[in-house]
Amino acid sequence: MGKPDKKKKEKTKKEGCRGRGKSTEKRNVPYTSIFSNILWSIRKQLEYSPSVFYMQMLRVPLNVGLAWSGIYLPFLVVAEVTGNRGFSHSLVYIGGLLLAILCATILKSIFDRLMDAKETLHRCHISYELNKKSMGCFYQIYEKKEMLDLGERARQATEMWDGVQPTKDMTRHAWDFVESVLCYVLFGTVISFVSPWLLLLLTLAPAVNWFCVKLYQKWEYKNRSNWMEIDRKLDYIQWKTADFAVAKDIRIYGMATWMEQMYRMLSKEYMAWDKKRIIREYLSHLADLIVILLRDGAAYVILVLMTWEGKITVDQFVLYFAAISSFATWIGNILNKWNQMRHTSLRLCDLREYLEYPDRDGKRRINPDDYKENAPEIRFDHVCFRYDGEERDTLHDICITIKKGEKIALVGLNGAGKTTLVKLLCGLYQPTKGEIYMDGVPVSQICKEDYYKLIAPVFQQVKAAFFSLAETVSCRGEEQTDFARAEECIRQAGLSKKLSSLPKGIHTKFDKQVNQDGTELSGGELQKLMLARALYKDAPVLVLDEPTAALDPIAESEIYKNYKDMTEGKSALFISHRLASTRFCDRILYLKDGQIYEEGTHDSLILAGGEYAELYKLQSCWYQAGEKEETAFAPTELEEV
Prior knowledge:
By secondary structure, this protein is of the alpha/beta class. It has helices at residues 6-14, 34-48, 50-82, 87-136, 139-142, 145-157, 166-192, 196-204, 207-222, 224-241, 247-252, 255-308, 314-355, 418-425, 448-452, 469-474, 483-492, 496-501, 523-537, 553-566, 602-608, 611-619, 628-631, 634-640; strands spanning 378-385, 395-402, 407-412, 433-438, 441-442, 455-458, 541-545, 571-575, 587-592, 595-600. The strands form two sheets. A six-stranded mixed beta sheet has the order 6-7-8-3-9-10, sandwiched between helices. A four-stranded antiparallel beta sheet has the order 2-1-4-5, covered by helices on one side. Residues 1-25 and 625-641 have low confidence and may be disordered.
């Protein structure tokens, strides 16, 4: 065998769906700069909580004034006592300064309390943006692991961990940085009267600390995905252990010990990374401690020598001593705030990269109401689709036309590409090659929000949230739900008996973990409810992906009887492993290896004697009248085939 063509292989890897945008792979370089993130945070603050911006701005002069009064008050007291200026004179000056400090402290405290309340609202708005992005992002982009990981990191940027909250901390750190710089200039001016060389020493010494902290943060950012991925797995296992839907399986199959072992193993990996992180953080702070001891020790020796030599008075010693102590603090604050801004900026980079990730959408708007009574024609023109990282197409050269009002059955063995074709039809995927047209217009050019309104799907895997039956069917709040229509659709989908048995009817809510009197539906009942949801939407194109997979044969037969009425005036694509359902359709497409292998009506395909006929023959024993007991096993047998 010859060696594979390396250039051709690399080209295949680079090829993908058109317009995919930037890669979501792990970055070693931040998405954007600190300055850009500061401006972004300020814009969001002015948009959602402008009062916080102005209060933070006013806190700067308040804090600078309080910092200055902190070193000036001891100097003033010593000067008044040693200067023999009289009690009344001292009382006025010292008392006035104390009163000003008290007022400034009270005002600062009021600002802090108000900002805490307002910043919570600001964080909620950012979380809303994040959730909106997740729910509106093009599905093909959203389902990628890299995008899911990025979304998890973005979500963590909106949460609070040990008092750290990036979306609100960025502007705080920025204003604190400005405050520290102003105090550096103010206190540095005072110290320069003692010695310019002392000012230089106090300024340069913390550079060691800044360098150490920067190294730590660089390491943390580079390795952040390691513990975040483990943390995501831990959250998943913890969530699954509390999931009511899998509670029976955990007990019956003895999965508790296995899941516990998985949790312990992942916890051990997480703690190993956490240990590395803590050690590196500790070493960076240890370097800071050593620098402080050397820096402050040298400064205090100089002050003591100057006092012994009579170059400065006692009150000046107190002023310079306090200034040097505070100056070291402000230099440290400048570096710390810069590092905090950098650390916060890295978190915001994940959030902004997720929020600003280029979506894929068409520009052409359509009016879905124009298709209520007239279903569109949908045409697949030499469509190919390949999943990322795969070496071959899942679908290859698909050419089909779904005519207005036509009912098509899509059949084939597992892995033939049926569900992928459905996702392409629904606009959840875009072809790797070829194009899908709706009434002659490329679907990729149509605004996806408008296109989605034309499709009412029922997928294989269905879930219900903690809403009521009516809300689940309408996908709206109760105040926007047409209850009569919702009930009609639920009964049409075959849930009349279940609905009548519920004390609160269509107002009954799901999920016993959230609602005390909530209900739980079986898999078949839930699938019927999703069918009712599709009927309520009343879209011109109905897509049923294994809608009866969880139903018993009797319930399946009832659905088939109503199938014609459900799809009246609509185009429909019906996927099923049970070939008895195909006789209800106008045309049957048999998929094999991602291609249309056979096409025709049920009778014509049987006469042709191809693979469809062979598969139908294997299943035919399950469709004989009077063999209801055997029929119950048909889904399992077919899935094995």
